[in-house]
Specification:
- Helix content is 43%, strand content 14%.
- It is of the alpha/beta class.
- It has one domain (5-277): NAD(P)-binding Rossmann-like Domain (Rossmann fold, 3-Layer(aba) Sandwich), CATH 3.40.50.
- It has an eight-stranded mixed beta sheet with strand order 3-2-1-4-5-6-7-8, sandwiched between helices.
- α1 (14-25) packs across α8 and α3 runs parallel beside α4 (106-126).
- It is globular, with a radius of gyration of 17 Å.
- Mean pLDDT is 90; it is low at 200-211.
Length: 281
């Protein structure tokens, strides 16, 4: 794993921090992508101490801001010839119907569209790696998700946290499925994972500071940070799983997606909607 560089979004707490520490222990250069640089720097100090590695960098990246994502991607491409892995871990859970600065409903804005844009912008540097991985942290909550392409931001549909979060996690799985098709013939593989119940600092980890009410609602969908990180690390570092690209994992094992919405047609539709929504062509 020497000379490998891997980006982890939402790396300052919970599963993102646990993933950073374990990858750094393997001798990997980890780039922590964090929205809040103050909290990010505190987490970086902790990660360096716990991993006994100084090979950790911190960059500011707010997944709820297209401008911030473009700036982050530009910095990465300026400073690194290649990237060997991207772990799309950052997540937000919103009790109330809130919007990103670009006008997207917050959960689909950060959890799906932000990571879609980041991945899209970094594909060129990922393709320069001998064997790169794109890991999307999804959740079993995808089964609660439905997609209405005329109203993905809940302008007219009734909103609640389970619907919004479920929709964003369904998007993570469908994005992985379609992204795999766009990666055919390259050295890049992609996987989605259910981290289990990452309950240790869920409010902080998922970037909202919401209370026990949501915690109890979502508890069925979320292992500890370290257990959740194990599958992300496995999918990033295991060399013999490229043939399973596009698939969904739980506890380091292939997990069937038993939901009619998870299909190639839906994945293609979501990809096309996302490209249009983000103004990409």
């Amino acid at each position: 794993m020497q000379n490998k560089t891997i980006i982890v979004t939402g790396a300052n707490a919970g599963m993102g921090l646990a993933t950073t520490i374990e990858l750094a222990k393997e001798g990997i250069h980890v780039i922590m992508a964090c929205r809040d640089t103050k909290r990010g720097n505190e987490a970086k100090e902790r990660a360096m101490a716990e991993s006994n590695s100084t090979n950790i960098s911190l960059y500011q990246c707010d997944l709820g801001s297209m401008e911030s994502i473009y700036n982050f991607a530009d910095q990465i491409k300026e400073n690194f010839y290649k990237i060997d892995g991207l772990i799309n871990n950052a997540g937000v859970v919103s009790l109330k119907h809130t919007r990103t600065e670009d006008g997207f409903e917050s959960m689909i804005g950060v959890n799906h569209l932000g990571h879609f844009l980041l991945t899209y912008l970094l594909l060129d540097v990922l393709k320069k790696s001998d064997q790169a991985r794109i890991i999307n942290v999804a959740s079993g909550a995808y089964k609660a998700g439905t997609l209405d392409y005329n109203d993905m931001h809940f302008k007219n549909r009734s909103f609640n946290v389970i619907k919004g979060y479920g929709q964003s996690k369904l998007c993570n799985i469908l994005f992985t499925l379609e992204l795999n098709k766009h990666l055919e013939g390259t050295n890049v593989s992609t996987f989605a994972l259910h981290p289990g119940a990452v309950s240790t600092s869920l409010g902080v980890d998922r970037r909202t500071g919401f209370g026990e009410k949501v915690h109890s609602l979502l508890r069925p969908f979320f292992l500890t940070s370290e257990e959740g990180a194990e599958t992300a690390i496995y999918l990033t570092t295991e060399s013999k799983i490229d043939h399973l690209s596009g698939r969904y994992f739980y506890k380091k094992k292939l997990q069937p997606t038993k939901y009619k919405k998870v299909n190639e047609n839906e994945a293609k539709k979501l990809w096309n909607w996302s490209i249009k929504e983000l103004g990409l062509n």
